[in-house]
Amino acid sequence: MKKLRNYDSAPGCSMEAALHIMGGKWKGVILYHLFKDGTLRFSELQRFLTSINQRLLTKQLRELEEDGLIIREVYPVVPPKVEYSLSDEGRELNKLVLDLSIWGRKWLERRGLKTAVEEDLEELEKILGDPK
């Protein structure tokens, strides 16, 4: 097993631990796209996350890998091919991340707002397995 990131101190509660691992603007979005779109290459993730720079995306991916939520697979080809997928531990967050996405979509709709990229709410609920 890979060495996990060190934390400055023990978390005060389990919620603090969870938010420490999932914290940051991009980690939840990265996990969302891996749930929704499956295994992705770095460039594909970068296309989905248009506002993130390459350095920050790399940092967030490394942290998610160190925390055991994603798997980084490097293929020995030229040019190098790297793919990111969810680990078993990362897949445990499926319902949480997709529920949060659906909630965000409904929150935007109640205010007459939309996302930059049109998302199909029914598709998200189908992925989640909601009987709605």
From TrEMBL:
Nucleus among keywords: no
Family matches, as InterPro entries: HTH_HxlR
Pfam families the record matches: HxlR
Record GO terms (molecular function): DNA binding
UniProt keyword terms in alphabetical order: DNA-binding, Transcription, Transcription regulation
Domain (HTH hxlR-type) ranges: 13-112
Domain of life, per lineage: Bacteria
Name of the protein in its database record: Helix-turn-helix domain-containing protein
Annotated source species: Enterobacter soli
Taxonomic lineage of the native organism: Bacteria, Pseudomonadati, Pseudomonadota, Gammaproteobacteria, Enterobacterales
